[in-house]
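Summary for the steering committee. One of the milestones for this cycle was to obtain a three-dimensional model of the protein with glutathione bound, which we needed before selecting residues for the alanine scan. The sequence and ligand used are listed below.
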Amino acid sequence: MIVLHQFPRAWGINPSPFCLKVETYLRLAGLPYRAVTSASFRAPKRKLPYIVGDGVEDGRVVADSGFIIDHLRAVHGDPLDRELTAEQRALGHLMRRTCEESLYFAMVYARWIEDAGWRIIEDAFFKRMPAPVRAILPGIVRRSVRRSLHGQGYGRHARDEVFALGVADLDALAVLMKERPFAVANRPSSADATLYAFLVSVMRVPFDDPLTRRARACATFAAYLERMDTELAKAGKPELVG
Ligand SMILES: N[C@@H](CCC(=O)N[C@@H](CS)C(=O)NCC(=O)O)C(=O)O
């Protein structure tokens, strides 16, 4: 069985949209897997998720949600995207990049840099650690996220600018998603694994910021998440351990 290494759950979901994306892909594709909790410093690329393949895949380790899905397609076939046109694939690609390479960084800002977001993160990720670690680690990790965001670029913008960038991504996605029941087709494709993961990560979380408010006010997103819930309910629940 495929073993998916991801962060511990928080708020009833995987708090990492990239981990939730792979979990969603595996469920939509009907691939049996086991999810185990891991830490990013143990991961091959120091980020989660990664998978350890099953017998068919000879125990291969694949890191990065995009490479994981490419790998699963190569080994297990492509039930979700097989029938897509080149245009649908291109649209899915751009929607995915909008989530992962832009919206994501506005979400990181909302969660880790904003004080209100940080209080929720600190409580969810660090509260259960032993007191000495709890006193030091949260500050170290927050500083490291701040440095990464500065390096990426969004961390150099003013608060209003960061949220304007994220809201523009959400608005563009909403326009495109109004056109059809799922991201690029009338049934779920791999692009939906990303879209579902990111919209859940913005809408079904305890944060309250300009991103969460904009997304929660969007009827297209709400209807989309309900359709995806129905699809995922058909796929059943993963076996969770660790
Ligand atoms: N491109 C990667 C991004 C994964 C990623 O950014 N994971 C974050 C959590 S959402 C992580 O592991 N961060 C830990 C760290 O940077 O130390 C993918 O698609 O899997």
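Key point for the committee: The chain has nine helices and five strands.
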